[in-house]
From TrEMBL:
This is DUF1467 family protein. It comes from Roseovarius gahaiensis. It comes from the Bacteria. Keywords: Membrane, Transmembrane, Transmembrane helix. The chain crosses the membrane at residues 7-26, 53-78.
Amino acid sequence: MSIASAIVLFMVIWFMTFLIVIPFRIDTQGDLGEIVPGTHAGSPQNHHLKKKAWITTGITLVLWVIIGGTIVSGVISVRDIDLFGRMGPEGSMWHSESGSAAE
């Protein structure tokens, strides 16, 4: 895995995790009884985004090490998820069903 791939993997995991973490521990205006006129009672009063970003980063580091380690070790490869056998034989990059591209 290249450095760019590792960074992209980290960013994808971070944003997916952040979207999961955002709804936890939100103090809404309705819960606190301080509803600002013109806003919904479910609007957040205290969202704790900085704390959630740090929690997300910690969770992401653990997941990134596990997923990145699995990719680098070769335990699971792209050929393992080729359900329809469209990648061809393992040694040939140019294999196709209709014939060989090297001809």
